[in-house]
Amino acid sequence: MFELDDMPLEGKPYFRADQAWTAPMNFTPEFRQTLDLRGPHYIYDVTLRDGEQTPGVAFTLDEKIKLARELDALGAGAIEVGVPMVEKDFTVIQALRGCGLKG
């Protein structure tokens, strides 16, 4: 198991080997004292851009539109689709302009 020499992971609240882990600084007292989860919260999503950078992932136009609609329904305030100078990204951007998304 991966561990930093000065920071063992097992038994820490931010680490569960069978599930996931998050940045340890989320659990420091200094950070927790300033944390206010009452909102409002803003979602800026990069799934359509960065998600497709994952090896083996290639969304179709219909899948991108469906993802964008779902993200919009979840309240994403902004969805980063791609780079308009890239033809396939430009095609998606044009298609999404007519979808009536709020974000």
Q: Can you walk through the features of this model?
A:
The protein has 103 residues and is mainly α. It folds into two domains: 1-35, no CATH class; 44-97, no CATH class. 34% of the residues lie in helices and 4% in strands. It is built from four helices and two strands. Strands 1-2 form a two-stranded parallel sheet. α3 crosses α4. The longest helix is centred in the middle third of the chain and has 14 residues, at 61-74. It is elongated, with a radius of gyration of 19 Å.
Quick recap of the structure?
By secondary structure, this protein is mostly helical.
Q: Let me know the largest β-sheet.
A: 2 strands, parallel
What structural class is derived from the secondary structure elements?
mainly alpha
Q: What share of the residues lie within helices?
A: 25-40%
Low-confidence stretches: none
Individual helix count? 4
User: What global shape is seen?
Assistant: elongated
Q: State the strand order across the main sheet.
A: 1-2
Give me the secondary-structure topology:
Elements: H1 29-34, E1 44-45, H2 47-50, H3 61-74, E2 78-79, H4 87-97
Parallel strand pairs: 1-2
